[in-house]
């Protein structure tokens, strides 16, 4: 986990992904969210993604439960399927568009020439 923390430095956006068929991955979201908000840029855009939407019959985390978590933590939320590709591109595009809107409105500054990071 300490290795992944270095990926947050300078990030303007993050996809926080959990497995809808695994309560354990959902329960870990609070820790991952804390890391993202602590270690990345102050105005980081975070999209919560419930993955494996194609396995609805095996679901352990309801859409409503995850939607509430997203709302309480001011996150955008989508359910995705890496297998079918459903909403995967949309998640990245939504993140990128939101970052661009923040930059254009002045609520997020672009990377300074000497600054590292700045990835999504």
TrEMBL record:
Q: What keyword terms does UniProt attach to this protein?
A: GTP-binding, Nucleotide-binding
- SMART domains registered for this protein in UniProt: RAB, RAS, RHO
User: Which PANTHER family does the annotation name?
Assistant: DRAB11-RELATED (PTHR47979)
**Listed GO MF terms:** GTP binding; GTPase activity
Q: Does the keyword GTP-binding apply?
A: yes
May I ask which residue range the UniProt record assigns to the signal sequence? none
SUPFAM superfamilies cross-referenced by the UniProt entry:
P-loop containing nucleoside triphosphate hydrolases
| Gene3D superfamilies on file | P-loop containing nucleotide triphosphate hydrolases (3.40.50.300)
Gene behind this protein: Rab4b
Q: What is this protein called?
A: RAB4B protein
User: What InterPro entries does this protein map onto?
Assistant: P-loop_NTPase, Rab_GTPases_membrane_traffic, Small_GTPase
* Species of provenance: Steatornis caripensis
């Amino acid at each position: 986990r300490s290795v992944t923390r270095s990926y947050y430095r300078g990030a303007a956006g993050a996809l926080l992904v959990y497995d809808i068929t695994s309560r354990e991955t959902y329960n870990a979201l609070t820790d991952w969210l804390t890391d993202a908000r602590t270690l990345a840029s102050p105005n980081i855009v975070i999209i919560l993604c419930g993955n494996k939407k194609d396995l609805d019959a095996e679901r352990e985390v309801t859409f409503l439960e995850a939607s509430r978590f997203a709302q309480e933590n001011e996150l955008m939320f989508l359910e995705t399927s890496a297998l079918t590709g459903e909403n995967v591109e949309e998640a990245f595009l939504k993140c990128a568009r939101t970052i661009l809107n923040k930059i254009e409105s002045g609520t997020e500054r672009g990377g300074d020439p000497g600054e590292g990071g700045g990835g999504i």
